[in-house]
Amino acid sequence: MKQFLLLFFLFSLSLVVLSAQGAAPVIGGTIKGKVFDENRQAIAYATISIMDIEGTLITGGITDEKGKFSLDNIPLGPHAVEIQFLGYQVFQQTFDLQKDKETLTLEDIYLAPSGIALDEVVVTAERSQYSLQLDRKVFNVGKDVLAQGANALDILNQVPQVAVDPNGTVTLRGSSQVQILVNGRRTGLTMNNAIDQIDGANIERIEVITNPSASFDASGSAGIINIVLKKNQDYGFKGEVSATVGAPANHIIRPSLLYKGPKLNFFANYRWRYSDYNGIYTSDQQNFSDTGITRLVKDEREDRHDDGRSFYVGGDYYWNDNNSVTLAFFRADTKDTDFTALSYDITDEQATSTLLREGNSLERRDYNQLEANYTRTYEQPGQRWTIDFQYDFWNSNKDWDLSTFGEQLPANVATGIRTNSKAGSRDYVLSTDYSYPLGETGKLQLGAKLENRIVTNDYLAENQVDDQWQVFRDFDNEVDYTEAIGAAYVEYQNKLGELEYKVGLRSEYTQIDISDAENTFTQDKEYLNWFPSAFLSYNISENSGIQASFSRRINRPNLWSLYPFNEVRDINVLQTGNPELDPTYTNGYELTFTHRHDKYSFNPGIYYRSSDQPFQTFLDRTEDDLFVLLPINIDQLRETGVEFTASYQPVAALQLSTDFNFYHFEESGIYEGQDLSANGTSWRARASANLRLPKDLQVQLYYLYVAPRNEAQVSTLSFSELSAGLSKSFMDDKIGLSIRAFNLLDSSIRRSVAKTTSYELEQSSRRYGARFTFTFVYKFNQTEKDRMRNAQRGNR
User: Fold this and answer.
1) Among 109, 378, 514, 637, whose CB has the most other CB atoms within 10 angstroms?
2) C-alpha span between 611 and 636 (Å, rounded)
3) How confident is the model at residue 87 (pLDDT cuts 50, 70, 90)?
C-alpha cells in the first residue's frame, strides 16, 4: 500500500497545481448575476435561458445554492436573459455584449410571486418522479403514500428495474450482483443487509446506474444503486416529527431538524423502531435409493423482534463563495431476538417419526459511518475539486441455542446445538475528484481512490453429547479478511451539436488477504484490472432522445462468500462459503429511447450482459443426507433483455406508471463432473396508480409480479405483491395522516424446487406476511414558499 499512498499523494498534488492555473480562456462573452426572492433569500436551481434577438435559445443553466449563475461563450451582440422558477413570475431582460466589455454582471434580480394556487403546485410536486440522465436513471422520492413511514427497502421496491424479494434481497434487472451506495459511498448498512435501517423519509432520490461510468467503483456486475439522503436546501430553521404504528408491530418515532444560514447548513434526525416479524419457512425433501424413498418435511415458524435506533447528524460550512467543508456522522444499532419453532416429519418404508426443534437467538449490531468532504469551486463554471474521507466500522455478536426433541433422533441430529458468531469491520476510504471545463461544452474529470477494509469473524458451533459440549463438525475458527483497493480514473465529456458523449477509463488494483487461526484455507489474491466505459446521447427532437452505453464491471466475492462456515440452524441444510471463489467480470451494453410529452412519457430499451466466471449456488448432498449450498464459479453467463418504463397523467389528479423487464439467459459450466449449463427466460412487471382527490386526500396502489426462472439445478417460482395507501393532509400540509398496507394478499413468498435423479428438494420462504401501518406527521416552520420551492427541487 505504500506505493499507492505515494501515487495518491502525487495525483492530489497534480490536481492542486492544475487547479492553480485558473480557468480556461473564454470564447465569446460572459454574463453573471444573482437571483433572489422578495425577501432577499437566494433562489437555487432557477432556470436561466439566453436567447438571441429572434428568440432562439443559445445556451442556458441553473443558479447554484447561493442563487448565482455565470454563463460563458455567449456571442457578442444583443441578447435576452429569461429566468424561471416554479411559483414566481418569469423575469426577462435584454443586454448587449461588446468587445470592450465582454463580461457583464447584472444587477441583483428579484423574482415576484406568480400567484399560482398552492394546491396546483403540490399536485405535481408530491409524487415521485422518474427521469433519465446521460449515465443514470433518477427516481426522485416525493411524498407518495407508500413512501410515508417507509424504510429504504420499501422505497427501493417502488423504483423501476429494482425489486426486493421476500427475503429482503435487492435485485437489479433480476440480478443480486448489484452494489448499493449511500451518498455515493459504500457503508456497513448496505454490505450487511441492514438497508431497512435507513428511514425512507430521509431519502431524496434513488439513482439507478446500470452501466456506471469510470468515475464510479467498478464493483457490482449488475450495476449500482445509489441512495441519496436529504439535506436542507432552504434558509431558516425547520423541523418534522412523525410517528408510525403498525400491525404486526412496526412502531417508529422520527424527529428531524434542519437549519440553513448564509454560511452554515445543519441537519439532524433520529429514528426509533420497534418491530415484529412472523416468518414461515417450509421444505419437502425426498431422497431416492434402491431401498426406497425417504421423505423429510419441515415446517418452521419464526417469531422475530427487532429494536432499532439510528441517527444522522452533520453540516456544511461555507467559509467563502468557493470553499466549503462537510462533516456528518451516521449510527444505527439494533438488538434482534428470534424464537423459532421447527417440526420435522421423517418418513421411510418402516414408519413416520416426528422431531421438534426450538431455537432462540440474540444478535446485537451497530453500524457507524463518519464522512468528511472538502469542496473547492472556481469562477469558471464547472471547475471543481473535492476531497472525501470516510471511515466505516460495524460490529455484530450473535448467539444461537437449538434444542431438538423426539422419541428417536437420527444419527446425524444432535440433541442440543449452540453457536456464537462475532464479526467486525473497519473500512477507510480516501478519494479525490477534479473537474475541469474544456472549451465551450467539454469537461475533463480525474480522480483517485484508496480503500482499506479489515473484517474479522470468529465462529464457533458446539453440540451436546452426554451433558458435554463438543465442537460441531469442526466449526471452530477465526478469520481475518483484508481488502485493499487502489484506483484511478480519467473521464472526458463533450457535445457535438445534439450528440453528447462521455468516455472514460478506470484502473483498479485489488489485494485480498485471508487468514484463519487453523491455517486451513489461508489465501492471498491480487489482480490489476482496466475498466473502460462509453456513453452516447442524441436529441432527436425537443421531446425525444436515444442513449447508448458500454461499461466493464467486476464482482468480487465478499467475506461471507469466501468464509466456509455459516449458521447451523437446520438438520438437513447447511450453507457455506467457498475460499476458492474468483471475481466475476461483466461487459454490459445498453440502448434506450426516451420520449416525453405533457401527459405521458415512455422509455423502451434493450441490454446485453456477458459475464465470465459468474457466481452460482451449487447444491450437493453428503453421505449422511445433509444438503450443502455452496457458491461456485461457472464458466459463462449471457443475458439479453428488453425493458419498458412508462407514465401517463390523463388528468392533473391522476398519475399512472408501469415498468416491464423481459430477459433471456444462457449459462454454462461444469463443477465436480456435473454439467450446469442452462438457458431460459423470465420477466417482471410493476404498475402503480396515484390519485389525488378533493380535500387533500391521496390514494396509491402498487403491484409487482416476478415470473419463474429455471436454472441448471434450481427452479425459482413466481411471486407477487400488492400494496395500497391512503393519506390526507391538514392545516396547509403541516399535519399529515396516512394508512398503508403492504403485501395485502400475503403473496410475497420465495419458493424454489431442486430436482436430480437421486433427490428432490422444495423450499419456501415467507419473511413476513401482510403489514399495516398508520403514520402521523407534523411539520413546523413550513411556509407556503417552502412548499413551492421543495416542489421544484424535488424534481430537479
Assistant:
1) 637
2) 6
3) low
Query: Which pLDDT value is given to residue 772?
Result: 92
Beta strands at 573-575 and 264-289: parallel, antiparallel or unpaired: unpaired
Sign of CA dihedral 607, 610, 615, 619: positive
pLDDT confidence of 621, banded at 50, 70, 90?
Answer: confident
What the block records as the C-alpha cell of 403 is: 434444542
pTM: 0.74
Interstrand relation of 442-465 and 416-438 (parallel, antiparallel or unpaired): antiparallel
d(CA 764, CA 787): 46
The domains located in the chain, with CATH, are 2-110 (2.60.40.10), 236-793 (2.40.170.20)
Q: Helix, strand, or coil here: 783?
A: coil
- Tell me the C-alpha distance between 431 and 446, whole Å: 11
Question: DSSP E strands: which ranges in 290-415?
Answer: 292-320, 323-347, 352-377, 384-405
Q: What is the DSSP letter of 626?
A: -
pLDDT on residue 122? 34
How many whole angstroms separate alpha carbon 451 and alpha carbon 390? 9
Cα–Cα separations (whole angstroms), residue 588 to 139, 208, 216, 608, 755: 22, 15, 15, 6, 32
| Distance separating alpha carbons of residues 183 and 742, to the nearest angstrom | 27
- Count the neighbouring beta carbons within 10 Å of the beta carbon of residue 634: 22
Q: Which of 186-195, 300-309, 342-351, 477-486 has the lowest mean pLDDT?
A: 186-195
Q: Residue 521's closest CA among 479, 551, 558, 555?
A: 479
End-to-end Cα, the chain, rounded Å? 41
Name the H helices within 591-685.
none
- Residue partners of 468: CB distance under 8 A and separation at least 6: none
What's the rounded Cα separation, in Å, for the pair 586 and 220?
9
What digits encode the pLDDT tens for the residues 190-203? 655 567 667 777 78
Cα(349)–Cα(520) distance, integer angstroms = 41
Selection from 187, 188, 169 nearest residue 178 by Cα: 169
* Closest of 464, 462, 350 to residue 405, by C-alpha: 464
The region that residue 761 occupies, defined by phi over 0 for left and psi between -120 and 50 for alpha, beta otherwise, is: beta
